């Protein structure tokens, strides 16, 4: 079942349920209240008639039709006839359900005639004989109107007064019931129409987004995702547009990576082939040793390139913990000192004597610092590393005395495969950026607006300075 039909069924069914339920409750309460009021009035009329002139013991003395000509019977008969101003008919009868007197003439209904209709109201009669009064449920007469009987016992005798009155309040209730049913049907239809409009308003954008998702799945990323309304569907469409752009960027990075891999591997392979061929042809052992050393150097370069690609492509997971960052920084310095000395590079280090407690993965700290130190060595001859505590963070700065980074390249310096060097995959700073993100820190190219370095720098030239920010301890530094 599609979403449109579900909307129609749910909203239409809810509207029907609400209307029918509310209507039924209103009808039940109204009918009950009116019927109680009608019963009370009927009992009041019957009781009033019994109390103001109808004498049960006197009426019980009339047992034969001939008794109807007596003056005393005529007076009781007259009272029943006057009662017709308030009710349709009235009777006085014995326990055996035979009539004594009625609002009809004695010739039409003689004394002792059985009232057969009383057989239908045995429970009500039992109640009336027991407690003195009772009212029957409403019924439909031959004329199609609703009626009710009320019974009132005359004193403590075996004579019972019965009156018949129309229950006209039920006719409007019946019409009210029909109106409720019609209203429920109308509200159900209107709810179905409203549900159709609402569902269409939701389903159509979803169908468009579904087609967009299918188009993206098939690799057709050229068309932008149409931004829907400002509600949840709008957020969904904007999220899909960001996903589309992310896929495009990832695809471009993948293509660039493949091209870069081919380029970075092809050049060393050409050198390897050249040096290997020369080593095979030469008879000079020293020359062969030099050529094989170059082969080894090219292999190490290839291994470094492959490691860079693997590091960038591998999912990263940081096991962060609070520790003294000076230790992994020192490990990174130990790995580059010998190489710096061989190349004639100068290394200036400024670390505080007190612990630099930061929250990060120690191996990741070592990798990012090592990467920045190696980049600095490629850029200049002078390298400077310093670290200090600032505003709840541990700041590690690596600077060089090289030509620096131009303004137009600053925004792209951390993009994967971006480099201004002839060699290298352009992944070093991208890896640093990713490692800092997974550790809850950040890296930035200093532009003079950050926290001041507490140690004066002896480096000359424009240079570039990269700063790493690690989350510090909650405790204040000493």
Give the topology.
Layout: H1 3-51, H2 56-60, H3 71-82, E1 89-93, E2 99-102, H4 122-131, E3 133-135, E4 139-140, E5 146-153, E6 160-166, H5 170-217, H6 232-281, H7 285-313, E7 321-324, H8 326-343, E8 346-350, E9 357-360, H9 362-379, E10 382-390, E11 393-400, H10 407-410, H11 428-438, E12 442-445, E13 465-472
Parallel strand pairs: 8-10
Antiparallel strand pairs: 1-2, 1-6, 3-5, 4-5, 5-6, 7-9, 9-13, 10-11, 11-13, 12-13
Helix pairs in contact: 1-5, 5-6, 6-7, 8-9, 9-11
Pairing-aware structural class of the strands and helices?
A: alpha+beta
How many angstroms does the end-to-end distance come to?
67 Å
CATH topology of the largest domain: Beta-Lactamase
Radius of gyration: 52 Å
Question: What overall geometry do the principal axes of the alpha carbons give?
Answer: rod-shaped
* The first-level CATH class name of the largest domain: Alpha Beta
How many helical stretches? 11
Low-confidence stretches: none
Q: Tell me the strand percentage band.
A: 5-15%
SSE string, helices as H and strands as E: HHHEEHEEEEHHHEHEEHEEHHEE
> Main β-sheet, in a few words?
7 strands, mixed
Total discrete domains: 3
Q: Looking at this structure, what is the CATH superfamily of the largest domain?
A: PAS domain
Number of strands: 13
